[in-house]
# Entry
Amino acid sequence: MILCDMTQRFIQSTENSIQSANSQSANSQSANSYDANCRHLSMSMCMPQMTAEQIEAQIAQIKQDCQAQGLRFTALREQVYRLILLAAHPIGAYELLDLLQSASEKVVAPPTVYRSLEFLLRHGLVHQLNSSKAFFACSQPTDRHVAAFLVCRCCGEVQEFSHPSIQTMLTEVEQSTNFATQSSIIELSGICQRCQ
Ligand SMILES: [Zn+2]
Ligand SMILES: [Zn+2]
# Structure
């Protein structure tokens, strides 16, 4: 079965990449090691460890990028994005609404918040988990990519893993099944290294 083979190869490739990313000797001659400098080899968290300065620098960069592309990064979009960056875990729409409401004297209209979330999703600034519907900040927002999300069932932390092999696998599946993909979210549920 072609899909089984591809899934196997993806899992194998993911395991190799994780080992490579964790390895102190990422530049070793091993046939399975990837280029440690490759921008696509990413094993970053959903940014819970960002400092306030890093968050503001990130927002300034996004503002600049949006301006260059003629996109409106409104005050509400910025506020929603900041809250997602600040959250130590993937955050749901209701939790976001509560936080926005508690910071505002005016009534916050849910549709405006949903539209902001749609904007952030559409432009790759945040991702949304299929399982919990929670949002978290993309670790490479300026670099279009297909990622897999490793969700820990213990602490809820999400690791974003992106690698060209994921895109290659999806393209192969699309071509062999003549399927026009409109969206894809790859979630792996399990126990993170810290919780093991
Ligand atoms: Zn991402
Ligand atoms: Zn964990």
Summary: The chain has six helices and six strands.
